Amino acid sequence: MPEIVSQYIELHVEDGTTMRAWFALPENGTPKAGLMVFQEAFGVNSHIRDVTERFAKLGYAALAPELYHRIAPGFEGRYDDIASALPIAKQTTTPGLQSDVRASHRFLLGRFGDRIACVGYCMGGRVSFLANAIVPLKAAISYYGAATGDMLALAGKSSAPMLFFWGGQDQHIGSEQRQQVSEGMQASPKPWLEVTFSDAEHGFFCDQRSSYNPRAAQLSWSLSLSFLDQYLSQ
After folding, report:
1. Residues of the chain where predicted confidence (pLDDT) is lower than 70
2. Rounded to the nearest 5 degrees, what angle is found at the Cα of 55, between the Cα atoms of 54 and 59?
3. Domains in the chain, start-ordered, CATH in brackets?
């Protein structure tokens, strides 16, 4: 795999705030596409930085914005301490997330052109859904991130094909919520698909969680890469 460079950078957001982001890209050559990587409720922690770098090693200019920059800048939660992360996650607002998405997209667009996609995990899966409705993308991927209410109503504005991953044993996002997403996505003008791993729990992709499911994680990774290749080539 090619060598990469990775570092924190600062982005200027339209509401006047400054947002730190972890940015990784191949050291040599032109990245094949820009990719926004949206965090879990635990912030841009070591796992999200690692995932961002995995994509960079495959040729992407990958950017993981700190979506807590207004509330708890630099926050890195522990997976055994959800009580510390949830109150911060609940303070995020849709307008704030929209501004953060646009700032991230603008950064990639100005440097790498319009071949931009996104992927998000848990809370970031919901942000990935939001991003697909407010900025032009080529592809969007959501891992176990349930969009509900007003956000789900944005499905009709989807700019790109979307891939959803669910855990069949997820105790946080049950079958009823998954069904709501399926029904809402009927309004999408773009193709979309869902993959449910019947034996997986919430957070199955994260190798730092007790719910990590290696087989589901590996297969979802392969499917994600194929999905990105398919739609970024168009």
Report:
1. 1
2. 120
3. 4-232 (3.40.50.1820)
Q: State the residue for tokens 């912030």.
A: 43
What is the per-residue pLDDT for 170?
A: 96
Q: Please, how many CA atoms are within 13 Å of residue 232, restricted to the half-sphere of its CB?
A: 22
| Phi, then psi, of 24 in degrees rounded to 5 | -135, 140
Which residues are tagged catalytic?
122, 170, 202
Tokens of 49: 């930085």
Q: How far is 49 from 134, CA to CA, in rounded Å?
A: 25
Q: Which residue has the tokens 């052109």?
A: 113
What is the structure's pLDDT at 204?
A: 98
Q: What would you report as the CA-atom Rg of the chain, rounded to the nearest whole angstrom?
A: 16
pTM: 0.97
Helices and strands (H, E) in the chain, number of each type? 7, 8
Residues 137/228, Cβ–Cβ less than 8 Å: no
